[in-house]
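Supplementary Methods. Inverse-folding protocol.

Structures were first reduced to a discrete structure-token string of length 555. This string, shown here, constituted the complete conditioning input.
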């Protein structure tokens, strides 16, 4: 495979580690705190995790002793869910710590995600193989997948795979669902009397796997910087041509962290935050009218251009649209056979409008034909509407355009509205990791092995104080059960790691809210440019604005 010059040079980059874990692995010990509690539903979770609930927070310290550090081990690693920049460095950090502890240790990579573990599809990761992936983006070292290990047969198959390969520990690299699965695996092995340890690593570009102790999920930093570069390029074009409105949809179905961070980095004309829409119970028409007002006011100053950022999951946060989507999901689950026998999207739409409630039917029929069809597309694996395929940005363009035509007819708008749409998603999932993500992920992988070497299971690898330089980072582990609550899934209550939404009282949103009117009325675009890997700290090693604001630093 031909390698780019950047790839060759990035191979030589040496990721930074927190100071407590830089020395001899046998001298790195853990300081354990008090027993912990889940964020909610404690009694139910105690029953589900009878053997692993309530463990203490672990902090790594140098200058201790760990006589078991050098024991010979075989560790398995899994990449689970969507790609995120830095996944390869998690594995390289894990690999290096494993080999530093004992050169005879083995690392097995299970292929294609959790299904590789169930089906015992694997490769051994060697030094030569590992070196081809250091500091690069993607998950192609072993591939990923979205299989959930949830049936008794799958758990039994996993146990068999571990016994066959004499696996001592598993490292699951994934998001909230994947790490919920890791917690269940940890509980399963302890309940079975098996010595297999399970450690998770927090991954998702969406930024919604975080809390007081997991300050960021890896990949978020690189993804938002990649998107912000693209948004900045579009803003520069808009400011040059001065005749286009760009509506940009960004990844983030369950939370608006990506949209908010990109807004903080680029200062667009407008940015919609889904959580605020839900909090204020804003209707679709209210959102449209607000955008139309911004367009009209800028037109008064001769500025018939702008950039609007839209979270991928916005449509579900709009009250009437959320109710409509929930009804559609229920109706198609109940009448799936009848629905599948109807030929053509227009006939399907007519059938559905006749089944919807009196509240949701007019909402559905008021939508553009293309959006109606997108609501009826193939379902996701859970039987639900695939929200990511609904072109919310096109819906808003069309509805804003219609309102502006009405304003023009009454004489309250005299500008020009030429709109273009974009969706930035996959562009950010496999980028070369920023220096921050390269360091952070390597540290997470290294720490994951240290948790194993100290005998822990059911933990999420943690590196804290990450808004500061790596010389001030603190490595440790957080009990997975600490982050859980019980949620309704497929008709029954199940344990789930709670997603972190944008906090409207949090420093990042407050900063955005304080400045957005200025950005809307006066062109204030910032052009971040491409991610830099070499040069001064202020352009190469800065964390996100979100992280800096959350930790009390200047934006």
């Amino acid at each position: 495979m031909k390698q780019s010059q950047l790839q060759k040079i990035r191979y030589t980059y040496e990721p930074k580690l927190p100071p407590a874990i830089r020395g001899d692995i046998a001298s790195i010990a853990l300081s354990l705190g008090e027993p912990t509690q889940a964020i909610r539903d404690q009694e139910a979770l105690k029953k589900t995790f009878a053997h692993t609930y309530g463990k203490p927070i672990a902090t790594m310290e140098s200058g201790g002793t760990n006589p078991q550090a050098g024991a010979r081990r075989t560790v398995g690693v899994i990449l689970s869910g969507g790609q995120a920049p830095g996944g390869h460095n998690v594995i390289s950090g894990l690999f290096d710590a494993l080999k530093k502890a004992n050169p005879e240790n083995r690392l097995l990579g299970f292929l294609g995600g959790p299904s590789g573990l169930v089906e015992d599809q694997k490769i051994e990761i060697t030094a030569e193989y590992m070196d081809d992936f250091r500091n690069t983006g993607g998950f192609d070292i072993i591939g990923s997948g979205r299989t959930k290990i949830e049936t008794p047969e799958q758990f039994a198959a996993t146990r068999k795979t571990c016994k066959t390969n004499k696996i001592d520990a598993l490292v699951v690299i994934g998001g909230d669902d994947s790490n919920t699965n890791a917690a269940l695996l940890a509980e399963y092995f302890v309940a079975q009397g098996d010595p297999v340890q399970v450690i998770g690593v927090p991954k998702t570009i969406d930024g919604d796997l975080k809390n007081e102790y997991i300050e960021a999920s890896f990949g978020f930093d690189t993804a938002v910087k990649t998107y912000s570069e693209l948004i900045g390029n579009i803003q520069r074009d808009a400011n040059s041509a001065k005749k286009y409105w760009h509506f940009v949809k960004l990844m983030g179905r369950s939370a608006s962290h990506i949209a908010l961070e990109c807004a903080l980095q680029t200062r667009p004309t407008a940015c919609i935050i889904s959580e605020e829409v839900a909090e204020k119970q804003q209707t679709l028409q209210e959102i449209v009218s607000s955008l139309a007002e911004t367009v009209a006011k800028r037109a008064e100053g001769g500025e018939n251009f702008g950039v609007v950022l839209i979270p991928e999951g916005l449509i579900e946060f709009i009250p009437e649209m959320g109710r409509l989507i929930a009804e559609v999901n229920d109706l198609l689950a109940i009448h799936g056979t009848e629905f599948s026998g109807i030929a053509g999207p227009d006939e399907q739409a007519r059938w559905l409008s006749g089944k919807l409630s009196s509240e949701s039917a007019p909402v559905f029929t008021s939508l553009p034909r293309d959006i109606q069809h997108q609501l009826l597309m193939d379902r996701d694996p859970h039987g639900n509407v695939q929200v990511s395929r609904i072109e919310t940005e096109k819906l808003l363009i069309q509805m804003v355009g219609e309102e502006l035509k009405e304003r023009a007819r009454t004489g309250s708008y005299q500008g020009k509205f030429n709109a273009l749409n974009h969706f930035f998603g996959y562009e950010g999932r496999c980028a070369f990791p920023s220096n921050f993500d390269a360091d952070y992920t390597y540290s997470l992988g290294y720490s994951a092995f240290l948790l194993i070497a100290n005998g822990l299971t059911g933990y999420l690898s943690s590196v804290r104080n990450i808004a500061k330089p790596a010389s001030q980072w603190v490595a440790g582990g957080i009990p997975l059960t600490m982050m859980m609550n019980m949620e309704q899934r497929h008709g029954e209550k199940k344990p789930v790691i709670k997603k972190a939404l944008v906090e409207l009282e949090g420093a990042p949103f407050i900063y955005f809210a304080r400045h957005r009117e200025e950005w809307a009325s006066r062109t204030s675009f910032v052009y971040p440019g491409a991610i830099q890997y070499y040069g001064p700290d202020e352009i190469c090693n800065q964390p996100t604005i979100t992280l800096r604001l959350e930790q009390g630093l200047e934006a």
